[in-house]
Amino acid sequence: MTHDRHSYAEPALVRTTHLELDLALDFDEKVLAGSATHTLAWTDTESHSGDRLVLDTRDLTVLGVEGQTADGWEPLEYSLAMPDKELGAALTIRTSKHPRVKVSYRTAPTATGLQWLEPAMTAGGVMPFMFSQSQAIHARSWVPVQDTPSVRFSYAAHVTAPPELMVLMSADNGTTSRRTGSYDVVMPEPIPSYLLAIAAGDLVFEPLGERSGVWAEPATVRQAATEFSDTEEMMRVTEELFGPYRWGRYDLLVLPPSFPYGGMENPRMTFATPTVVIGDKSLVSVIAHELAHSWSGNLVTQDSWDDIWLNEGFTSYVENRIVEAVYGTEFALMETAIKQHATVVKLDPLTPAELAVELPGLHHRSEYHGKTSTGPLKGSWFLSWLEERFSREVFDPFLRGYFDRFAFRSINTDNFVEHLREHLLSEHPDVVTDDELAAWLYEPGIPAFAARAVSPRFQVVDEARDLWLKTGELPHGAGQWTTQEWLRFLDAAPDVLSPLLLQQLDRAFGLTGTANGEIARRWYQIVAASSYEAAYAEMAEFLTKVGRMKLVLPVYQALAGTDRAFAAEVFAKARPGYHPITTAAVQRILGQ
After folding, report:
1. How confident is the model at residue 373, as a pLDDT?
2. Are 275 and 257 in contact (CB under 8 A)?
3. Average pLDDT, the chain
């Protein structure tokens, strides 16, 4: 990889191999200030051509740049380009191929990769909180860095913060929650920039096993530890399937509800939404997904965001294998069917041209900049299809060999296809045709020959829903349904329903006000599309308390079509608690 169109960096000339951060957290000003020192590997150390280092930045104030010499440090000339709305500003540093370059800087209070929370927005309500979200290209908003997954580096950090707060990073943090106001961490394995992560708050630790544990606020740590108690077992089964876990510890940090994603696979320290902690482990597939990234994504990484399926498609496949091994085939089958149904329903109304944009071939150069996409499901579906064709006895060793061969490397689709042909297709000819492979790699949509997951329990749910819609007869036994069965019932229901049907269902099963964020997401989406005002107060409370995009954006989308004024009113109240990424997404929906 020599160029990533989502980055100004020039890794063909020079690459960061190690990063040293020295940062101070200022909660009053809502900024990080300090320095980032890059240890550099120059491609050509002899000539004077290409003697520049280009780093990605977004809204950073650069205070000075120095280069290391045999006698110490010397100031270097630098320039900051005019910023692009999407990519930020290129920081170009003139060097004499210095082995190390230090950039002193401070972030902006509006950094897109950081969120600063007032005490009232936390579980404890006493201390403030701060956390980062670097994926996809937000690391550049809090560190001047080669912000492309094609560049991997180890890092070390010294961080100072108010002494009452605990600081954690995507690194070796240890397991003690003793607070000193001064913290030193190390990440010895090379990672891409989007896996840089930091958090600070009233955090304590609860062990889950020898290699795993939960960090959370004192009010939520015990409940989270109970919910995630199967983490060590998940690690064990994944190692049996796909090789050793190579990151030392696997800990989880439960963030406040404003976290915009279900989870973020920061190595050694997954950041997780509290919306999956509901007491019945029905949503722990999110944890299986983030753990799976320790193999697919963190260990073997896409070399640009064009090849997002190599991260997310592989991870969704491994996630499903983890869920099956720990929770059983039926649970895994229901999870797969839910994802496939959502994708197929979304694709069915599209024209061929729209389909090519929405779900192109896996070898297509996407327009991914951190937006949600159905593309990763196609990648997961492709791998499941390969597994079915070749059998697990053949496919599992192939996938394990893939993780071994490309460990701690960044690759693209061409690299994978070459590996596939060399180590699977050529060794087992006549199992997959070139036309079938091309259908996955180059043609839009899901190939017609791809089998869909069929869950016997969902067939019962489908019959119950159809009967209810036709006769008004409530589904028998729905009081004992799992989260997945309720999602199937609601996801396949029409977006717009009569107030009488909604009232009947709500009175029987108490969907309004549910603590289950996944069920609430779909229920309130229907509520909004149907203008069922009886549930508006609870819907508004849900949108105000939760900032996870998967859960709130569909509701705003539905409200935008029925009551945009109400949506804007709710957003105005909820916005102070939203992450900048969520805020921008809602603004796009509401046309603000």
Report:
1. 61
2. yes
3. 93
Would you call 565 exposed, middle or buried from its count of C-beta atoms within 10 A (0-12, 13-18, 19+)?
exposed
pLDDT of residue 342: 74
Give Cα 162 to chain centroid, integer Å: 29
Q: Is 262 annotated as a binding residue?
A: yes
* pLDDT confidence tier of residue 369, bands split at 50, 70 and 90: very low
The per-residue pLDDT for range 538-559, each reduced to its tens digit, is 999 999 999 999 999 999 999 9
Q: What is the pLDDT of residues 441-467, one digit of tens each?
A: 999 888 989 998 889 999 999 999 999
Domains and CATH numbers, the chain: 1-106+138-187 (2.60.40.1730), 300-442 (1.10.390.10), 494-590 (1.25.40.320)
Is 367 marked within a binding site?
no
Give the Cα separation of 584 and 592 in Å (integer): 9
For residue 424, give the DSSP letter: I
* 158 assigned to a ligand binding site: no
**Cα 283 to Cα 16: distance, rounded to the nearest angstrom:** 38
- Do 402 and 295 form a contact (C-beta atoms < 8 A)? no
* Nearest partner of 143 among 89, 173, 112, 105, judged by Cα: 105
Identify the band that residue 372 occupies on the pLDDT scale cut at 50, 70 and 90.
very low
CA distance 382 to 76: 50
* Pairwise pLDDT comparison (174 vs 566), residue with the higher score: 566
Prediction pTM value: 0.92
Residue 417, pLDDT score: 96
d(CA 395, CA 386): 7
260 is in an annotated binding site: yes
Known binding residue 293? Answer is yes
Joined tokens for residue 20: 């040293």
Q: With pLDDT > 90 as the criterion, what percentage of the chain qualifies?
A: 81
Contact 196, 152 (CB under 8 A): no
DSSP class of residue 145 equals B
* Block residue for tokens 């029409």: 494
The two three-digit tokens of residue 420, written as one number:
């596939």
Are residues 187 and 159 in contact, defined by beta-carbon separation less than 8 angstroms? no
Annotated binding residue at 265?
yes
Total residue count of the chain as it appears in this document: 592
Residue with tokens 């020295």: 22
pLDDT at 255 over 80: yes
Residue 158: CB partners within 8 Å, gap ≥ 6? 21, 22, 23, 182, 183, 184
Within 139-279, residue ranges assigned H as helices are: 221-227, 231-242
Q: Is 592 annotated as a binding residue?
A: no
**What is d(CA 276, CA 255) in angstroms, rounded to the nearest whole number?**
11
Catalytic residues: 290, 368
Residue 37, SS3? Answer: strand
Q: Both tokens of residue 556?
A: 């705003």
The yes-or-no verdict on residue 259 having pLDDT over 90 is no
User: Would you state the pLDDT for residue 349?
Assistant: 74
**Does 49 count as an annotated binding residue?**
no
Half-sphere exposure of residue 313, counting CA atoms within 13 Å on the CB side? 28
